[in-house]
Amino acid sequence: MSVLFLLCNLSLASAAASKSKVKGSQGQFPLTQNVTVVEGGTAILTCRVDQNDNTSLQWSNPAQQTLYFDDKKALRDNRIELVRASWHELSISVSDVSLSDEGQYTCSLFTMPVKTSKAYLTVLGVPEKPQISGFSSPVMEGDLMQLTCKTSGSKPAADIRWFKNDKEIKGKT
To answer: Per-residue pLDDT tens for 86-103?
Structure first.
């Protein structure tokens, strides 16, 4: 019984898809891709639409502030620049990306009703130089000592490993 229900849903979905292709840009959604960039780097957000009958494209940030409307800059942020604006594409760059830039960006195609596509910007944090603590003076052979290694700013969390004479030390030693 559930198989029949699924088949019915699939055939309805393909019928709806074929109708949207006939309508042109009225039924088409903009296409975007998620972007991952290292903190301090530059992210390029691209929104494409195959068929467009002179309908405007817009990029908005996670706070829903308009960044670009077609080729017109809407937000005063010197890090955000236009890469390409045409009836089929709106690409923008965000330079010197920080962790606070991470989030879901929206591309809107101003048909009736408005069609949107989301692109998630992931920002990777660069870890600070590791700091080793736990020693204050030379240690005699055979003495026990405990060392601690810390770093911060890493996203995702840093993978800390210990090495002795270029050989990795596994587990507690």
So the answer is: 989 999 999 999 999 999
